[in-house]
Design goal:
Blueprint (H helix, E strand, L loop, with lengths): L1 E6 L6 E5 L10 E10 L1 H8 L17 E3 L1 E11 L9 E7 L3 E4 L1 E4 L2 E4 L13 E4 L5 H26 L7 E5 L4 H12 L6 E6 L4 H7 L4 E4 L11 E5 L4 H11 L3 E6 L20 E2 L2 H12 L3 H14 L7 E6 L3 H10 L7 E6 L1
Parallel strand pairs: 11-12, 11-14, 12-13, 14-15, 15-16, 17-18
Antiparallel strand pairs: 1-2, 1-4, 3-5, 3-7, 3-18, 5-6, 6-10, 8-9, 9-10
Helix pairs in contact: 2-3, 2-7
Amino acid sequence: MRRMLVDQSDITKTRMEDVPRQDLEPGQVRLQIERFAVTANNVTYAASGFAIGYWKFFPTGIDGQGLLPVWGFAEVVETRSELLEEGARLYGFYPLAEELIITPEEQGPVILDASPHRAALPVVYNRYVRAKARSALDEGMQSLLQPLLATSYLLSDWLQDQQFFGAQQVIVGSASSKTGLGLCLYLAELDPRPVQVIGLTSAGNKGFVEGLGACDAVVTYDEIESLAKLPSVYVDMAGNAEVKQRLHAHLDAELRHSCAVGTSHWDQFRPKQDLAGPKPQFFFAPSQIEKRRADWGPGVIERQIGAAWQRVAERADDWLDLREHQGIDSAEAVYADVAAGRAQPRDGHVIAL
């Protein structure tokens, strides 16, 4: 079995490794991973692997070496469980590897991995959904967009739940990222629009973000000091310390909330900063899911997320080019480009095994 290891002390360093297949224990199944996406979201998983616990999902048994979590599809190729038959297909959270062994347990309409090492981890990442075989394009689009747009939708829902903290504008950092553009699109759906939507991005990506038509204005990082000094919320997908410092200093008391979501600019992130205005608060999407389950009952927020990501995906041709790469070895170069910020915002990278 082949897998890609990431150096946990320098997430730009990777290596491919072959490991022997493990025999199944009673109750386990072997999943052959067939298709997954690699995005800036996965780089955030690596950058926050210790702080949030992403390295714990798929332990390698090697000190200092982690398995990168990815979203995609797999098929049951061997089973010692009555719950999953050979040929069953599952969508969910996988390691960047050729296979995964899970201990399936029924949880309503989904399959839960009840492996002991995952018991204390956020349950949303332990759930697997049965899937029918579909086209490579459809599976690629779901692998790319569902996890990212789910976070975008939950951010939009959370901001509405908080009444936008009394802000008049929401500034979306790294608006060219798929999670950032998703948030802009969901906020733009609101009618009447309760806040101005400001996309913050690099000069090179300004035209791309403007082309979405979802933002009331698009501002480059060089233009932060031109932002209107209105009551604001900052939603930070990038984690760029200099950008955060300047934006906080410029808005100061007008910044009503600063929300940290991702670290797509992971190499420019600093965990501790002396900032003007409010202290940034981390947004953890699974917490909003659990809140809405308590508010609305089980299944409601999941249906809303499903409808929301598909609604945006239907018009994704306007801003997304799917790039499929063959074989697990191709993942190293794709991950390197995404981690280094060389990937183009229109490109969505999928690895097919």
